[in-house]
Amino acid sequence: MFKALVLEQQDKKTLSSVKQLEVDDLPEGDVLVDVEYSSLNYKDGLAVTGKGKIIRNFPMVPGIDFAGTIAHSDNTSFDKGDKVILTGWGVGENHWGGMAGMARVKASQLVNMPVGLDSKKAMAIGTAGLTAMLCVMALENAGVKPESGEILVTGASGGVGSVSVTLLSQLGYNVTAVSGREENTPLLQELGASRVLPRSQFTEKGRPLDKQFWAGAIDTVGSQMLANVLSQVNYGGAVAACGLAGGFDLPTTVMPFILRGVNLLGVDSVYCPLERRMTAWNRLVERLPESFFQRACKEVTLEDVAEQAEAITNGQVTGRVLVKL
Ligand code: NDP
């Protein structure tokens, strides 16, 4: 028997409770994993609260990522005792996920734990951290270099934002953070932001083309924020867009693209190919300093997840939340 967070639906409302499950309750898959840590991502928040239509089949165990040890394998790629990480692939959305003591998934969805990480650190990074690295790699591929100029990170206190600020600063970029929470300014500066701008500076409808300030940007917010960022990007610069914390619309014009050659780079971590994931994980190990794990991560239990899910969907979570199984 092991504990799991189980989501059920009653009268169109999503209800969550911690239950005892058995291995036989788990869905099909060729590897069984002893889950040590999961983490709380924005999408988990939407799933657990029911604020977003993430889950279509109930009951469901949420948790879009986890790290742990192989307990049983029917696949030659993994042996019992191997340490592994899973992020994405619809796990925690349409297949039971990481917020349980055990998970049964497809071996093809796992990556080996990179040397230098353990389950706890892997989930301190989690989907959010992986996505931050994929955004950094997208900017690099678009030719944005540390010497190109300032890089803007929106939703900076959140999971993706806080890892992005840290990574960019470790790579030698000059980072400006945007945050709606003034109280997080000291933390963002400790993580490596050289300045922190208030969110309110980006929330009103701006001009199609504004003054050029940014060589690049990582946007986790979408909507008017992304539109305003695009209008301020330098000629030939790039914006990696991965999130919708402020809304999924994009009220922009073609002007930044056709008059300044600005590149809008879409970033997805869920179905990112394995090779690129491994590159991203290895670079995360290389670049994330120990101080990130101490400053920007907190640990909760399954019993705390419902409350934390409400908080993350209200933009009230700072940094990363690990869920210990
Ligand atoms: P978090 O909630 O941890 O971070 C989001 C941050 O955005 C908040 O901390 C807050 O930062 C800011 N924010 C919240 N609400 C608003 C608002 N209404 N308007 C403007 N800013 C707001 O979430 P994550 O970091 O886990 O995820 C960020 C986004 O990225 C989400 O939309 C998520 O779905 C997406 N995502 C996408 C992935 C992909 O593969 N494409 C993978 C992972 C995440 P502050 O208070 O500092 O302003």
Task: Write the SSE topology.
Layout: E1 2-10, E2 13-21, E3 31-40, H1 42-49, E4 65-73, E5 83-87, E6 102-105, E7 110-112, H2 119-141, E8 151-153, H3 159-170, E9 175-179, H4 185-191, E10 193-198, E11 214-219, H5 223-231, E12 233-241, H6 255-260, E13 263-266, H7 274-287, H8 290-295, E14 297-301, H9 305-313, E15 320-324
Parallel strand pairs: 8-9, 8-11, 9-10, 11-12, 12-13, 14-15
Antiparallel strand pairs: 1-2, 3-4, 3-6, 3-15, 4-5, 5-7
Walkthrough of the structure:
There is one protein chain. The chain has about 325 residues and is of the alpha/beta class. The chain folds into two domains: about 140 residues, Medium-chain alcohol dehydrogenases, catalytic domain (Quinone Oxidoreductase, Chain A, domain 1, Alpha-Beta Complex), CATH 3.90.180; about 140 residues, 3-Layer(aba) Sandwich (Rossmann fold). It is about 30% helix and about 30% strand. The strands form three sheets. Strands 3, 4, 5, 6, 7, 14 and 15 form a seven-stranded mixed β-sheet that branches. A six-stranded parallel β-sheet has the order 10-9-8-11-12-13, with helices on both faces. A two-stranded antiparallel sheet has the order 1-2. α5 links the parallel β11 and β12. The longest helix has 23 residues. The model has no long low-confidence stretch (mean pLDDT about 95). The structure holds NADPH dihydro-nicotinamide-adenine-dinucleotide phosphate. NADPH dihydro-nicotinamide-adenine-dinucleotide phosphate binds next to α1, α2 and α3.
